[in-house]
Amino acid sequence: MTKAMNRKIAIDPVTRVEGHGKVTLHLDEHNRVKEARFHIVEFRGFESFVKGHPYWEAPLLVQRLCGICPVSHHLAAGKAVDQIVGVDPENLPPTATKIRRLLHYAQVFQSHATHFFYLASPDLLFGVDAPAEKRNIMEVAVANRELALKGIQMRKFGQELIQAIAGKKVHGVSVTPGGVHKGLSKEERYFFLDGKTIPSVYTMIEWSLEMVQFLKDYRREHLPWMDEFASFPSNHLGLVSEGGAHELYDGKLRVVGAEGTRVINDQADSTYQNILSEATEPWTYLKFPYLKSLGREKGWSRVGPLARLNVCDFIPTPLAEKERQLFKALTSDKPNNHSMHTHIARMIEVLHCAELMKEVLEDETLDQGELVRQGEMRNVGIGVIEAPRGTLIHHYEVDDNGMITRCNLIVSTTHNNEAMNRAVRWVAEKVLDGKPEITEGLLNQVETAIRTFDPCLSCATHALGQMPLKVSLFDSEERLLHEKTRG
Amino acid sequence: MKKQEASKTLLIGIGNSGREDDGLGWAFVEQVEQSNFFDGDCQYRFQLNLEDAELISHYEQVIFVDAHQGELAAGFLFSNCEANAGTGFSTHQLLPESALYLCQQLYEKVPQAWVMAIQGHQWQLKEGLSQEAQNNLGNALAWFRTMTGKLSKTFA
């Protein structure tokens, strides 16, 4: 390998993400990064095999896309089939809306906790230079027992609430077309309020505040790395509700540019096809969504916690709003394009969800009122929610017998595809440029960059989950020069 | 929302009954739960996860039951399980010994633990156990029933 030539590096599999990914780095004759690609190499095809099934099966079938965020798919599909039975979100029974929102907040809470404590915290606690065998949750348990204990309890709280509403922690059922199957009894609510059996929702708020503070302190202690690592300008896409409020369950689509320009101004989510298009590349199953108005090159957006904090004008709960204002001050009220700050944004959303869960759990009417409504049958249903990882779109068309004839799913990780590729390129250019081979440092930093997006590759490609990382290095003639696997 | 202190022993079935013989762990626990010879608590998991470290910290004995892909002379194997950190973690898999290790690190408790491995033969996307797996399940259950009878004070 002494001869100068164009080269390609592949990282396969990528670890501590949900699913299976691979990275290839293509170098030119001077060992400089010519191209960086984050490949998704699995395929499941949920959009095809739900065809021919009755519409009411969709919320049950599609949640099998994922064992980590099945609730998000259950709810997005549920919102879509509501419309098929003629019920728009504003016409859903109030109790059903509260139950669905509570389920969603519990899901976002537990998913963010899972990501931060189980997947990302080793990067932060031990640093990207630590050996791979050190950078895992087992070592976190030894090094920071209190953090690990709280992480486990916070995830457990969300999962217990999901189970109380949907019957099971994973792949439970709450949604029925036009409503929900059950409300929440006083006894069930008090389980989460009284702190007798598990730490209460009030404790969850306290711990969430502590975690936000932990990350703010961490950033201050790790400057400029936290501000610079894998940072790049992008558009930001997310839902907002009335007055520009941060929204997770039902709202309008808003996009802001890297400098704060309003690119898409609060459009109905049902118009997503007028706003978004998807490009494909031959080297990955993951598509590249982009804004039609800006085109493929400039129209890609980030989604998820960072994007949601960038698109909203305020968070409608007091503690999270206070933290949002402090967060916005870091970038002088401009959109925040620092990828590592996604971890802070994610924890502000954990705090927000804890506050929201408290509000709903204190509501005495969760076991009262009608739970299901029906209207005039329609042939199209589009459900959009903010899943933990970002904007999630479910679109179904049915024939007059209610059988699904078309399905289009754009999942959160798909929106982040271009951004993840840019993050990998950022690392490759900073760490690899001019060097002839893959180092442990490169592997670690590529993983860390990808992990900020909390990609769920299983959902995005609809593949069974394994979480390995493979990096391959190729020359200009596409010859494999070096390869490292971790998993 | 069951109180976890009710029993001394926890039986955890691990697997996926939608993947043929991968459902052996659940089938074993279902049949034990329906019988009257075991008075402990039962749980079902697609896979173990970190919060299960907290769950098992409430018990004195834990038995993990899972399907096994390799050859087992009797079609099943009941063996001791010792705490071990292991080297990896994914949200899709946590080994029983790693769950015990976390329990030890976080809750300063290590329940006595065993793994009941039952040999499976078919793993496709389909419900129902193969005939060979059903035979192994029957043998494992019979052995477990006899053993719990002998050690009734242990597995309470």
From TrEMBL, chain B:
CDD domains linked: H2MP_NAD-link-bidir
Originating species: Pontibacter ruber
Name of the protein in question: Hydrogenase maturation protease
PANTHER family per record: HYDROGENASE 1 MATURATION PROTEASE, SLR1876 PROTEIN
One MF annotation (Gene Ontology) recorded for this entry: peptidase activity
Keywords: Hydrolase, Protease
GO BP terms: proteolysis
Highest taxon of the lineage: Bacteria
